[in-house]
Amino acid sequence: MRISIYRKAKSVMALSGTAARVNGTAAGTTVDRYQAGAAEYRSVMFVVTTATITDGSHAVSVQDSDDGSTWGTPAAGEVQGTAPTIAATDSNKVFDVGYSGAKRYCRIQAVTTGATTGGIFTAAAVLYGTRRDR
């Protein structure tokens, strides 16, 4: 059997169709790196996809947690790439940001400011490389 990303990765919802019309914080879905039937996944890539964005600033960030309820900011070396700040010029785009820290849980959050009509964006988390694949 060929080795492929399909066999080594799993995608889960990270932020469902957020209509960023209201200023404030939208916490994404908790991503558990210990998925049923698998060992811990070593890394996660968040794929943020935008639809039409009309105004506002939508700052996306990565958070991690030991217990899935107390959230913090990962160390700089645990985040790959730059989490996007989505603006009106970012309609119909895709952004990637990765997490490879040691904590079991991670998620993204989006903080929206200056929005009147805002826009819509969503995110998926792609989990990759279980520890038993070494």
Walk me through this protein's architecture.
With 134 residues, this protein is mainly beta. It has one domain (5-133): Jelly Rolls (Sandwich), CATH 2.60.120.1110. It has one helix and ten strands. It has one helix at residues 5-8, and strands at 9-19, 24-27, 31-32, 41-53, 57-65, 79-80, 85-86, 94-99, 105-113, 119-130. A five-stranded antiparallel β-sheet has the order 1-10-4-8-6. Strands 2, 3, 5, 7 and 9 form a five-stranded antiparallel β-sheet that branches. The longest helix has 4 residues, at 5-8. It is globular, with a radius of gyration of 15 Å.
Descriptive terms for the model:
five-stranded antiparallel beta sheet, 134 residues, mainly beta, Jelly Rolls
Concise description?
It is built from one helix and ten strands; from the N terminus they run H-E-E-E-E-E-E-E-E-E-E. The chain is mainly beta.
